[in-house]
Structure formats: C-alpha cells, structure tokens
Amino acid sequence: MSGHGPEEIKKTIRTYLKVLGVLVVGTIATVGASYLHFDSMAMTVGLALLIASVKAGFVALYFMHLIDEQKIIYKLLGLTTFFFLGLMVIIIWASGDKPMNTVMP
Cys staple from 43: which of 11, 38, 84, 92, with CB 3.0 to 4.6 Å? Predict the structure, then answer.
C-alpha cells in the first residue's frame, strides 16, 4: 500500500498547499493587472490570458493529476494547444477584415 502512509499524505498536503499559494498569488496578480492601463485592449486581454493559463496549468497538472500521466497525454495536450492557438490566430487575423457592403440597391 504505497502512497498511503502518513509521510506520503503530509507530502501531498504540502504540494496542494503550494499549489494553493500559486493560485492565490495568480488571483492577486489578475486583480492587480486589472488596474493597469495599457495602450491597447489586446495587451490587457493578453496579460489576463497569460495569468489564467498559468493558473489553469497548475490546476490541470496537480488537481487533475496530469503530472503523473504518460507521455501520450502530453502529446495530445500539446496538439490540442497547437490547434487552439491556430484557431485564435485565424480569428485575430480575420478580425482585421472589413465587412462587405450588404445593402441591397
């Protein structure tokens, strides 16, 4: 019954408390970043997404136990991230297009 002794439980609790600390600091950073005024809204949203991505990564790795998974999980996660970022780039790229004039004569 490895992993169920008092020392292993204390180690797991310490790990979860460290992750809690990272999430609390991330939340404080998010609130602090909301008071920053950048020249463009894209910078503000980008910073918020960066902080949220770090927090989501910690939640996925530790609370969803992905840190102990096999390499195929990381490959699939990387592939998903690649396609997600690709779709976001396409959306941002297309947002600069001008809409066609749809007024009927």
Answer: 38
pTM comes to: 0.63
| DSSP one-letter string for 45-94 | HHHHHHHHHHHHHHIIIIIS-GGGS-HHHHHHHHHHHHHHHHHHHHHHHH
| Ranges of residues in the chain whose predicted pLDDT is under 50 | 1
pLDDT of residue 1: 45
Is the separation of the CB atoms in 8 and 30 below 8 Å?
A: no
How many CB atoms are closer than 10 A to CB 62?
19
What contacts 81, CB < 8 A, 6 or more positions away? none
The pLDDT assigned to 92 comes to 81
Predicted confidence at residue 3, as pLDDT, reads 62
Residues 6+ apart with CB under 8 A from 62: 15, 16, 19
Map tokens 């008071």 to a residue: 35
